[in-house]
Write a structure and sequence with these properties.
about 350 residues; alpha/beta; eight-stranded parallel β-barrel
Length: about 350
């Protein structure tokens, strides 16, 4: 049994952190579903920027729509929704068979809205309505301004993938926002079974301290933080408040490991996959990491529900001068700015391509 199937059978969902039109039309994504136990997909502005910039596969669609599009952003969401809905249709049997546990595709609101609550809620509702698929997550960042947007979107019945979470406090705030939205639906007599995942970014922790952490602590911070978050997650799943919501028909917000491609060339290319094997979670991984896992990956011990050695490791980082709370805030801010940079580059690519294709007729 290959490692991807073994991980799936241990209770962790494998999602692909990538989307391109070629993946969809060439049958590659279908093969990943059939052969590598892939059961979902995530996207972000950087992924779409690379997909559209480095391929001619979108040119025909851009040429067809460029004159009718009001802006590069409108044109982009037309293109993105074509891809996301095609992926969602591919995953729909999985979504049906698991009653909504698996089989999701994720599309992000504009990162320019990361600090604008009202516009984020409006965009999330609009994108979900345009997708017109029950198994499409709308990604909303777990920033200070994003948290009330998450609550309002969930209350409105929009499935949400909360992104840009780094620390235990980030996760707990996102979980609270989700649960408030669910509890409001219960009070209003609405169905509370709205899907959600909380996406925790892992490898960026280690990249941030790579030049300053002592050698014995190299590539250990992201995993320690993830273990700490997993402990909080399992405690929340068992809490009376969440149990009351489940009894009313709600479903858990699943914990998702994101940014699990290895950044350190000296480390194993499946470092974070092996270390973060855990039931009741999702691991969304880059295509190269998925292939590496299938080719030579091994599954390590399952994450301990109690967090294992996380507090001891985090104490070592504190002794080494790492302020985890401050670094979490920094990473979230940098992540939001990185997506804005990719978004602006993406808009420029689409505008430039659109103008060139329109001129060429």
């Amino acid at each position: 049994m290959i490692a991807t199937q073994k991980l799936h059978e241990l209770g962790q969902s494998l999602w692909l952190d990538n989307i391109t039109r070629d993946l969809l039309t060439g049958g590659t994504l279908r093969r990943y579903v059939d052969e590598l136990s892939v059961t979902g997909l995530t996207s972000n502005p950087t992924i779409f920027d690379h997909a559209i910039k480095n391929s001619s596969s979108y040119d025909a669609a851009i040429r067809k729509r460029v004159k009718a599009a009001k802006s590069a952003e409108h044109l982009f969401f037309d293109l993105a929704l074509e891809d996301i809905t095609q992926a969602a249709d591919l995953f729909r049997p999985l979504w049906n068979n698991t009653i909504g546990v698996d089989g999701w595709a994720s599309l992000e609101v504009s990162p320019l809205l990361a600090h604008d609550t009202a516009s984020t809620v409006a965009a999330a509702k609009d994108l979900h309505a345009r997708a017109d698929r029950p198994n499409v997550f709308i990604k909303i960042p777990g920033t200070k301004e994003g948290l009330p947007a998450i609550e309002e979107a969930v209350f409105a019945g929009v499935p949400v993938n909360v992104t840009l979470l780094f620390s235990r406090d980030h996760y707990l705030a996102a979980a609270e926002a989700f649960l408030r939205g669910i509890e409001r639906r219960i009070e209003a007599g609405l169905r509370p079974d709205i899907g959600s995942v909380a996406s925790v970014f892992v490898s960026r922790w280690d990249a941030a301290v790579a030049s300053t952490a002592p050698e014995p602590l190299r590539n250990r911070l992201g995993i320690a933080v993830a273990k700490q978050i997993y402990k909080a997650y399992r405690e929340l799943l068992a809490s009376p408040r969440w149990q009351r919501a489940y009894n009313a028909g709600a479903r858990p917000q699943r914990l998702l490991w994101a940014s699990t491609g290895t950044k350190d060339p000296k480390a194993s290319d499946v470092l974070y996959i092996k270390a973060l094997a855990a039931p009741f979670t999702v691991n969304t991984m880059p295509e190269a990491t998925l292939k590496a896992l299938a080719d030579h990956g091994e599954i390590g011990p399952l994450l301990p529900p109690g967090g294992g050695d996380c507090e001891a490791v985090l104490a070592e980082f504190a002794t080494a001068g790492v302020d985890v709370d401050a670094l979490a805030a920094q990473l979230q801010d940098e992540g939001a700015k990185s997506f804005v940079k990719s978004w602006n580059e993406l808009m420029n690519v689409i505008a430039t391509k659109g103008a060139a294709l329109a001129k060429a007729g």
